[in-house]
Amino acid sequence: MSDSSEHAAPSPEVRPRGALDGLRVIDLSRVLAGPLCTQMLADQGADVIKVEPPGGDETRTLGPPVNADGDAAYFTAVNRGKRAIGLDLSKPAGRDVLLALLADADVLIENFIPGTMAKWGLDYEADLKPRFPQLIHCAITGFGEDGPLGGLPGYDAVLQAMCGLMSINGEPAGGPTRVGVPIVDHLTGYTAQSGILLALYHRARTGLGQRVEVTLFDTALSLLVPHAANWMHTDQTPGLLGSAHPNIAPYDRYACRDGEIFLGVVNDRQFRRFCDYAGLPSLPDDPRFATNRARLSHRDALRDAIESALATRARDALCAELMKLGVPAGPVNSVPEAFAQAHTAHRGMRVDRDGYHGIGPAVRLSQAPARVDRLPPAYAQHTVEVLREAGFGDSQIAALQEQGILPRWPPPKP
């Protein structure tokens, strides 16, 4: 008798489940920090339900550029992987729908002005915790609920100014400058994700959810490394250094024949290797440059020597050869140049699918890899699907739509 296994059909490939498969997240957040956080959770397998107000998430309108559906590229950058419903939470019936969605949710995330949830009868301690003891409620605010600035709205660039980030960013001749990306919002999104994962780990041990509080103010201050520590130890106010580092030299931007590079030398061994390669073999033995401390004291003379040596060299070849020698260096690329790098493709850091273009997930798990399964949703695209799962009948859904509790897109003109 022949072995039937020789003729058996091959088993279909089983895709590994995401690390957060089975986690349900109700996302009431808008703009950047909250949506970025929930997009990262969705990339790792969470079922994220994006709940938008009648006017939609503001970032849908922050264009051009826009996609084929008319949504701004800004919106698509932080909302893939989610299902979307429209819901008017200002009305009691809308809040009843939200409570029904929370019945089997693990995480609720929102970035309303403090007091908004309590005004709606959705305060965590008073209303949600007794009803949903396993729920993790992540609140993202500008400054928190209390304190001298408590309750005020927060915006990335304003926080960059208030928390000292602008004071250390920019050239002396040009003055303080906003960091070119909304870095406070970005890091707040990552901080919120970390807080949620910590709370999930705590719930796994105790069975209880909790409130996770993240503020743009705290996040902005946390970015001041090493500048705040330097000031705390010396009482000297940090100033503008351009691209230079306050504690390391040479750690700066330098001109080459066909562009600029960033040279990141962090120890004496790397400095000697760089000098030998660049035709400056005597520099490491010069008392002005023999140690990092000495180089910091003579950074202007050091810059002149380095730029003279690099002025005739080609940018990309120089960086490639220095990196092979163990000297950190990279070309100062434009955004298109950054995504044109072969390593960008190798790492899967650009996603192009069915008209969607985005940045790939930055975290890789060997046993539960991230993946992009859902494109950014149209407004209220999944309302019926989500509410049916929550136990609503078609007649109930139709009635809620008729009452405006489940708004549709585009919103009515005033």
UniProtKB/TrEMBL annotation:
It comes from the Bacteria. The keyword Repressor does not apply. GO terms for molecular function: CoA-transferase activity. It comes from Achromobacter animicus. The keyword Ribosomal protein does not apply. Keywords: Transferase. Its EC number is 2.8.3.19. InterPro entries: CoA-transferase_III_domain, CoA-Trfase_fam_III, CoA-Trfase_III_dom3_sf, CoA-Trfase_III_dom_1_sf. This is Acetyl-CoA:oxalate CoA-transferase.
